[in-house]
Specification:
With 110 residues, the chain is mainly α. The protein has 5 helices and no strands.
């Protein structure tokens, strides 16, 4: 490949990455975050919000250095279902209740 073609491909690569839409950052830690706030995120961002929430649940400090991706992936649909049924409820309480529901389902299958 000649030099001009290589430089052109590199430029196209940079241009393609520059036009990707910015992803929404998780909201600031707030005790008043509602399910409606959670549901306002798209389906791609919701798992990230749950990862973030699991990480900062305790006084804004990380609880653990590692988030269990597999468990959290199973948690997201439960949180989404619960939040869609009660949009004015607290996201944090719904997250905790969904986590307990997931644990109960796992224990039932053991």
């Amino acid at each position: 490949m000649n030099r001009k073609a290589a430089l052109g491909l590199i430029a196209i690569g940079f241009a393609a990455t520059a036009v990707q839409p910015a992803r929404a950052a998780p909201p600031a830690a707030s005790a008043t975050m509602t399910c409606q706030d959670f549901m306002s995120y798209d389906e791609v961002t919701r798992p990230r919000v749950v990862y973030w929430a699991q990480g900062v649940k305790h006084k804004g400090q990380p609880r653990e250095a590692v988030v269990d991706i597999a468990e959290t992936e199973r948690l997201v649909p439960i949180v989404t279902e619960q939040c869609s049924m009660a949009p004015q409820s607290s996201f944090w309480k719904t997250l905790d209740a969904s986590w307990m529901r997931l644990k109960a389902d796992v224990e039932k299958h053991l």
